[in-house]
Amino acid sequence: MKHNDRTAPAVPLDPALEQLVRELIGPVADKWTMVALEVLEQEGRLRFTRLGELMGGISQKMLTKTLRQMEADGLVERTVYAVVPPKVDYELTALGRSLGAAFCGVWEWAEANRAAIGAARAAFAARTQRA
Amino acid sequence: MKHNDRTAPAVPLDPALEQLVRELIGPVADKWTMVALEVLEQEGRLRFTRLGELMGGISQKMLTKTLRQMEADGLVERTVYAVVPPKVDYELTALGRSLGAAFCGVWEWAEANRAAIGAARAAFAARTQRA
DNA sequence: CCGGATCCCCTGAGATACTG
DNA sequence: CAGTATCTCAGGGGATCCGG
User: Fold this and answer.
1) In the predicted model, is pLDDT for residue B25 greater than 70?
2) Going by DSSP bridges, is the β-strand pair B87-92/B46-47 parallel, antiparallel, or unpaired?
């Protein structure tokens, strides 16, 4: 990579942005985080098990891990009640809600373009079929 | 999980939306897909190796896999030139660009809230320290 | 009886070497 | 240069056990 700047700009990507992607988007881009955000945004405050059910197909281990990460990032608030049947519930913080809002555009995109994606997948499958 | 609907509403989440999340967002939520989208959006048409360089730290295997998935979903167009030094380049389709635009809100959120996240992480670290 | 921690297994990501 | 094959190993899923 000594003389690669003939056709490329000197600073191809904003390094700060790349750092941002790695440290922020990386953890958040996890699909379980996105699903948890979505569910918590729609349902509000939820208990651990219930949240897991609504997220569909997540294991407790991953649920715990995802929620811990989200808590560490300040996206959810974790409340533990010291009662005999243990009760822990999770709720989005303001930061979490704002991230959910930011993802809104993506949900809308998905809804608007599901047909296009389906078509693209079918076309790709057909193409690779005979290739 | 046979009798889980005692405390739950009949249809807790729009099943169509959940299906959407699983089939569409799942593949797209992959961090490499997001980075590839970002890079291709900024740089336009790129060759395989160059794209890998700009994405920073991705292996060829994952790059190939990510690009194949994106091609299957109609997000990128793959062009193969039958020349002696093989040349393949990738460019966002209209669908891919629209997805990139949808993610714009997320990038903006990340930039706007990086400080808040940093603070939350520090606070969480401090809290878990003595716990 | 719920939240979650731990153990084990297996998929899948990363690095390397090789081919067209 | 673009992509595949192979190996290795971290990380995710499932079951089970523990603390409150």
Assistant:
1) yes
2) antiparallel
